[in-house]
């Protein structure tokens, strides 16, 4: 039997694959300056709006409309990309179409992620293993979208996503409600805010460190990076479940430190470091949900927004 987590994870793979596939298809005819700002627009819409869409998911009693709206926006973005490509985006006056596509794709991505993150947390009682599975598949979707970007792949991904979305939205797996995934801790609001800030800072640092391991020669090994990131996120959830949160986190941090401080650089150590960094992702998401029961959408959105420093660093390094 296919579980709700499995379906949402498959959808995550397809959503991220569709977004990056669209951007890379339009990139073939874009000027460098337009392309850079288009990717920036997409990431701002996809990540920085998630606290807002996450809050919306928390306030909505039946959020099955969210995946439908997300797919609708993704289809609109893909259609704009098709029009822009057909008309020729090299011309300066066609640039607004590129930014419209990027913004629409980012909005759809934002809606899907907070819905999927909250639905998984609520449906599984904040099971760290299943949180890891859900967040993991997007990394592979990005890698496949980049490596094999084509209109045929885009069409196949959209059809597959539409079928899964209809199935989820018409069943119980799509409804998240406003109930919390975990029992609330007996902490004062000040301690909750302070603890969440610590978690957010950890996510920001992880984003920066992750860009270090994903740089260099690994940029040409897109599928390896995506597969490593996916397996790391999955493994982190299972390690934490069986070893305990604190021992597993200590092992992850130690592994990252060793890979960072290892003399010389090699692909093996970079892959190991990327794997170890991604192992921490379900840990931070689990902790955020524990600190914000009933607000899992907002918790997911805050951590997603905290990923932006790593992206900005990578963008600046590429520009330089």
Structure, explained:
This protein is 79% helix and 0% strand. It is an all-alpha fold and 320 residues long.
Short description:
With 320 residues, this protein is an all-alpha fold.
Q: What does the largest sheet look like? A: none
Overall pLDDT level? 83
Oligomer: single chain
Helix count equals 14
| Rg for CA atoms | 19 Å
Shape verdict: globular
List the defining traits of the structure above.
320 residues; mainly alpha; 79% helix; globular
Layout of secondary structure:
Elements: H1 4-27, H2 32-48, H3 50-59, H4 65-87, H5 95-124, H6 128-147, H7 151-169, H8 189-213, H9 222-243, H10 245-261, H11 267-279, H12 281-291, H13 296-305, H14 308-319
Helix pairs in contact: 1-4, 1-5, 1-6, 1-7, 2-5, 2-14, 3-5, 3-13, 4-5, 4-7, 5-6, 5-13, 6-9, 6-12, 8-11, 8-12, 8-14, 9-10, 9-11, 10-11, 12-13
């Amino acid at each position: 039997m296919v579980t709700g987590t499995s379906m949402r994870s498959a959808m995550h793979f397809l959503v991220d694959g569709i977004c990056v596939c669209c951007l890379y298809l339009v990139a073939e005819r874009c000027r460098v300056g337009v392309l850079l700002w288009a990717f920036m627009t997409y990431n701002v819409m996809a990540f920085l709006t998630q606290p807002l869409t996450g809050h919306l998911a928390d306030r909505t009693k039946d959020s099955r409309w969210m995946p439908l709206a997300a797919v609708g926006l993704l289809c609109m973005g893909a259609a704009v990309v098709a029009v822009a490509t057909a008309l020729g985006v090299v011309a300066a006056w066609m640039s607004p179409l590129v930014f419209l596509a990027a913004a629409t794709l980012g909005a759809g991505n934002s809606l899907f992620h907070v819905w999927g993150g909250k639905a998984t947390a609520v449906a599984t009682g904040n099971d760290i293993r299943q949180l890891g599975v859900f967040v993991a598949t997007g990394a592979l979707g990005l890698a496949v979208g980049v490596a094999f970007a084509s209109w045929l792949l885009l069409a196949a991904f959209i059809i597959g996503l539409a079928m899964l979305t209809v199935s989820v939205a018409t069943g119980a797996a799509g409804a998240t409600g406003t109930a919390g995934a975990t029992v609330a801790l007996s902490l004062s609001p000040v301690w909750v805010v302070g603890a969440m800030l610590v978690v957010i800072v950890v996510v920001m640092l992880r984003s920066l460190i992750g860009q270090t391991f994903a740089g260099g020669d690994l940029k040409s090994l897109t599928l390896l990076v995506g597969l490593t990131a996916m397996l790391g996120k999955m493994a982190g959830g299972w390690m934490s479940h069986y070893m305990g949160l604190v021992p597993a986190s200590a092992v992850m941090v130690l592994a990252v430190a060793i890979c960072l401080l290892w003399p010389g650089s090699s692909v093996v150590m970079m892959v190991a470091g990327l794997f170890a960094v991604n192992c921490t992702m379900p840990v931070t998401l689990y902790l955020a949900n524990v600190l914000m029961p009933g607000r899992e959408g907002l918790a997911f959105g805050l951590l997603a927004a905290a990923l932006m420093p790593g992206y900005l660093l990578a963008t600046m390094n590429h520009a330089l």
